Amino acid sequence: MKIAYSLVTRRTFLNTLFGGWLVAFCGGSLYALLKFAFPTLGKEPDFVVLKTTDFINIPPNSVKPFAWGGKLGLFFKKENGSTYALKGVCTHMECNITYKPEDKKFYCACHKGWFDDNGKNIDGPPPKPLEFFEITTEGEKLIVAKKGIKVELPKA
Ligand code: FES
Q: Which ligand 1 atom is nearest residue 113's CA?
């Protein structure tokens, strides 16, 4: 039996097919060009060096942001005065997290994920704890590094 008419003509079908292929081709080419021009794009550093005085005097039960490559890093001082540095990115789909001082927890607004003040995932979709870094100081320098990375700064 022959269909009398169709909502999709042969021309529309072929145009859609060709258009989709063209978009995929251009997108792939642009991505390859950007990766060539900026090879470190999206890569995380092993460590960052900050100024100690900018971070060490923040009030207890608060955070101060810093740049961890192209991502958010958080310097965190607990209520008891102990200090930490962590990646301020949710372990679910990498949204930035915020610290809720009134709850003493980290919160991800993207899908309502919660982490306690030790970075443990306690509610919502995040599958694993937050990533904490190691902190060392060298004079005025505050060195924040991934765990297990040995940092040797050039001697001035
Ligand atoms: S990205 Fe944080 S809960 Fe989904």
A: 3
> Kind and range of the H or E element at 30?
helix 10-37
Which atom of ligand 1 sits closest to the CA of residue 112?
A: 3
Given strand 98-100, what is the order of strands in its sheet? 98-100, 105-108, 113-116, 121-123
111 lines ligand 1 (CB under 6 A): yes
What would the pLDDT profile of 6-56 be if each residue is shown by its tens digit? 778 888 888 889 999 999 999 999 988 887 787 666 678 999 999 999 998
Per residue in 84-116, pLDDT (tens digit) is 999 999 999 999 999 999 999 999 999 999 999
CB–CB of 50/40 below 8 Å? Answer: no
For the question of whether the overall pTM of this predicted structure is more than 0.85, the answer is: no
- Residue 114 CA, ligand 1 centroid: distance in Å: 9
Q: Which atom of ligand 1 is closest in space to residue 97's alpha carbon?
A: 2
Q: Which amino acid is at 72?
A: L
